[in-house]
Hints:
- By secondary structure, the chain is mainly α.
- It has helices at residues 9-20, 33-36, 54-75, 87-97, 111-125, 159-169, 204-207, 221-226, 231-245, 249-252, 261-264, 269-273, 279-288, 291-294, 296-314, 341-352, 358-370, 375-388, 393-403, 409-419, 450-455, 466-469, 476-482, 509-540, 545-549, 592-602, and strands at 27-31, 80-84, 102-106, 130-134, 200-202, 630-632, 635-637.
- It has a 3-stranded mixed sheet.
Amino acid sequence: QDLRLHDNAAFAAAARHAREGDAPLACVFAWSETEDLAPSRRLASNDDMSAIGEASRVWLHHALRSLDVDVRATYGGGGVNFIAGAHGASLLAAANAIDAKIVFCTARHEPAHVARDAATAAFLEARGIALVTLPGHLLWDPRALKIDMRREKYFFGTLMPFVHAAETSGGKVAAPTPAPSAALCVDLEGADLGADASVRLTSLDDLGVSPRFPPGRDWSSGIRDEWDISERGANEVWASFTRRGLPEYEAEHGRADAVAPAASTSRMSPYLRFGQISPRAMYHDLKRADGKRVSRLFWHRVHRREFAYWQLANWPDMGTKSIRRHYDRRADWIPDPTRDAASAEILRRWREGRTGFPAVDAGMRRLWTTGWMHQTERMLCATFLCDYLNVHWVHGARWFHDTLVDADLAINAMMWQNAGKSGLDQWDVFSGSLAPDGSKPCRAHDPLGDAIVTRVPELAGLPRGHLRHRPWDASDAVLEASGVVIRGAGEDGAYPERMLPGVGDVDGAGREDARARMISGVNDARRAELARAAAAAKAASPRHPAAAACAPPAIFEPPRIATAPASSSGTRPPCGKPAGRSDPRTSGRLSGARRRRAAARRRGLSSASPRAGSPRVAPLSVASGPPPSRSRRGIRSRSPRPTC
Length: 644
């Protein structure tokens, strides 16, 4: 992480320490197959996804090469020393080679990495060497942020309570610092690394960071062609976005086609993932550009990255374990693809972009080719896997982890947990623009189908417009004239038939069937958990109000797309607020106790009074009354908000 010179606290501290002691500085990258590649990331694995994915390894390899060049060009001495071996042993050997007593590095936040870094620190300390970890990867320390729901009008688990916590308890974000003006960097080639045969100084190419490709099957070429994997490239992309894209981001952020690439996405995610640009630099650039006013949505997306790490700090196993564990028992999940051949085939077609739904297939093929997807495509493909194909979210999370160049454990897990309904901010997408059926609202991210035919050439002959999204609506004559063949699973150059034949039909029955199936599975899991929590509350304190509040309600009724309630003025209520007269804060007819209980339900707490010292009985929330209408990433959710 933090593979940059500018605003790198660890590198600046090391350079200053070396300069003050008139001592050399060795830049070291230690790589251990045991610590960095195990356990396996493959589909059959039950690991915590702390090991780096295949596409990310490609990016890391080229980011390290670029950093080595930058260090040598900037300071005129040695570059990055690549050492193969256990982290502790490698750093010990490098420190002994230049008689150093202190090692600086950037703090990592993934739980497995935190544990490994602590073990490395203990190993070095026992041998008289200090390991100093400094911040740099995040704006705020997630362990220091406290979300106070007593004063919140937004639901717990949504972004805004976290934004307010960051603003009030996170502290001021310090200004970025320039790269050191001088550093006596040295190469360790020829130095004595000690007698440990497991540690060896090597070249980047021989280090083993990049995956080994069979002859003629180097799938990384698309990644290399798509990106400038360097600190310079990061700064150029960011400068272009702030100049051209930021002013149009509010209007264009949902677009995944080629018409408005500069305005629809910043494309900064892989650079942030590997620290090739400073988040503090981005934050202060946005402040200088009045970014919060120019694009409130992008300003909040900067915070959403921090929010993901806050969740990871509080739920360290969220990479593979549901935050709301009862959703693992949803009856609508199909059998585990690692144990069931039919489920494995469903997952395989989704991974390969051969579902028969062009918007999904375009996103999945873009992922495989470039290692990246537009945010809209990520959400669309994730919800299709979970809500339409009924595959447990963890299998999609593992695939994204292995194929995204910006695979970030915290962000990836947060997104997939929400898609699987087990996260803090559950998605309900059947009424939004993320349905795969190519209906008009669902074509907003690619109105003419240009992004589709870029990645799905089998449909390139179809005229621009809705038929690229819905090729099953094309007549035989149009298909023949366009040279498009739809057959089976996409054999012999044909485009595949829909995996879910009814989804996309004009009557909408297939989409409603999928929605009803998801709702049934979610409701059954909720009711079982509510009954369990009510029983636990009653056993702990039979007279506690949460015991009554946890009575299983009829959630998500009726099982069709609901219309969001309008406020008394006829306009939609603001994000996170109940509508019109249902807001107990605006009604003088409610008692103080009822107002407190209603406010607690809105904040995601139990129905007990929110006053200090009130007991929290069950780790879930129960909401009554009409939920809010929410706008998120260009999607308007119209269905009852999940709260359990």
